Amino acid sequence: MTDARPGSLPVVLLHALPLGSAMWRVQAEALRAQGHTVLTPDQRGFGATPLGTEPPSLDTVADDLAALLDERGIQDVALAGCSMGGYVAMAFLRRYPGRVRALALFATRAAADTLEAAAERRKFADLMLDDTLRHQLVSRTTPSLLGAGTRANRPELVDEVVAMAAAAAPEAVAWAQRAIAARPDSLAVLRATDVPAVVVTGAEDELVTVQEAASTADALQRGRLVTVPGAGHLQPLEAPDQVTDLLTALLDDAITADWNR
Length: 261
Prior knowledge:
The chain is α/β, with parallel strands linked by helices and 261 residues long. It has one domain: Rossmann fold, CATH 3.40.50.1820. It has helices at 25-33, 58-72, 84-95, 115-128, 134-141, 148-153, 155-167, 170-181, 187-191, 210-219, 235-238, 240-259, and strands at 11-14, 38-39, 77-82, 100-106, 197-202, 223-228.
């Protein structure tokens, strides 16, 4: 890893469900080359991180992140999350607001799930634990994480994402779905957040609408909405260079803001 340069800012990249930290590999490599310390933790139950026995809660995942930062001796970070990672980022903001100096939310809504949406997540969690249904469920639902253009023109990426989803521990996916279903509304948290921030949505995202992303961006005091053409729900994989550029610009804004204090 490249040593941090003066004025650099540690960066945390939080992955989507049901993927792992490898989804950020392009951005992590680029930001490290710029001199930033970059952490890409696998969240509970993903990669080598044990699921543990705690009940499903995004607050628990946020506390895991705080413990990791404390272990590394890192106080303040730029925090970026995609989908589930964005929900964890908002939970971290709620519990540790003074530790975030820049925020990037990808494919994430600030509002809580409706009763119907939460019930669907819990149903999905139950189905993931059914050995007779899991393979069909993953094969059927995972491609919708990618935009229609990606599905049509980049079959190799579709195969990669489906393979990543199939490799995820079903217990971890079920735990995470239940944790997301139980999350509170985060609009008040975002309204209290005064840091450089960007909210990114894919023009072909079939899970989070542009209107939902705009509401999230509007809640942030320094929020900016960016729509990525031709991308769906996984912009870091579908538009890796554009996402790297967005993160680089956000970090520059945060560092410049610190210098001007």
